Amino acid sequence: MMFARAKVVVASTALVGACLASSAHAAFFSFPLMLKAHSERIVFDVPALPPLAHARFCLQYPADCQVRRSFRLQPIALTPELGAELVSVNRKVNQAIVPQRNFGGVVAERWLISPRAGDCNDYAVTKRHELLVRGWPSRALILSEVVVASGEHHLVLVVRTKEGDLVLDNLNYDVRPVAMTRYRWVRAQSPDNPKFWSTINLAASAPDATPARSRLQLSYLRTRAALALHKGETEDCCRTDRDRAAEYAVVAERQEQQQ
């Protein structure tokens, strides 16, 4: 147990020292066209120490560390409108904050909402704040620490929905299911209370009753098809449609409606 606690403390320091700050301009809702009939979700294990900077964050922004409930206690259904809202927040925050690493260590680390420049922590807490303002319940917005392929610690925002857990990340163009990130998952906020953290991992959820496509994929197809109809409105959408993925989504959506 002492060794496990020591690992958490080390991870906290690593998150401060090596948090990735590079920003990718967020693209539109672009889940893979071929998802499995079941998806992976975050599973919460044992309590863990929160990052020291998160404790400071809660002192500076107490409202963002309170439990915020919605009138609906059921999991959030990922409608095309809510999917588009996630993409919009991801895009705007990624474009608004200039990437900048923290070289000051634990003492200098501050997680700030909407700074002019910042690292992965600032991107993640700003996205969570923006979604809280829009009425999303705190239980669905989970700050999560991961380890990327290079071994560096990184912070992302996980949004929990009925269809699956999604990742909003300053390092990637897409809003992605957790299973598509290839990250190693370390710890995350508790859905019951955002001040508490737990160790986490990924586990396969129960298979969907629909054998052909998962509900998450259907939500993707509907959103992708809607965006394809308006692909001329923004440059990002046009770039995403170079491989005719949006056109394929429209066809797939029509096929779904005919089944």
Features:
disordered C terminus, 19% strand, seven-stranded antiparallel sheet, alpha+beta, two-stranded parallel sheet, globular, 8 helices, 259 residues
- How much of the sequence lies in strands comes to 15-25%
Low-confidence stretches: 1-14, 25-38, 208-213, 228-259
The H-and-E topology, N to C, reads as HEHHEHEHEEEEEEHHH
Helical run tally: 8
Domain unit count: 1
Shape: globular
Give the helix/strand class: alpha+beta
Distance between the termini: 53 Å
Level of helix content? 25-40%
Q: Largest sheet, if any?
A: 7 strands, antiparallel
Alpha-carbon Rg, integer = 18 Å
Number of strands: 9
Q: How would you write the strand order of the largest sheet?
A: 1-9-8-4-5-6-7
| Mean pLDDT rating | 75
Concise overview:
The chain is built from 8 helices and 9 strands. By secondary structure, it is an alpha+beta fold.
Write up what this structure looks like.
37% of the residues lie in helices and 19% in strands. It is α+β, with helices and mostly antiparallel strands. The chain has one domain. The protein has a seven-stranded antiparallel β-sheet. The protein has a two-stranded parallel sheet with strand order 2-3.
Helix-strand layout with pairing:
Elements: H1 2-18, E1 40-48, H2 52-60, H3 80-96, E2 98-99, H4 105-108, E3 117-118, H5 120-133, E4 141-147, E5 153-160, E6 165-168, E7 176-177, E8 184-189, E9 197-204, H6 215-229, H7 235-240, H8 245-258
Parallel strand pairs: 2-3
Antiparallel strand pairs: 1-9, 4-5, 4-8, 5-6, 6-7, 8-9
Helix pairs in contact: 3-5, 3-6, 6-8
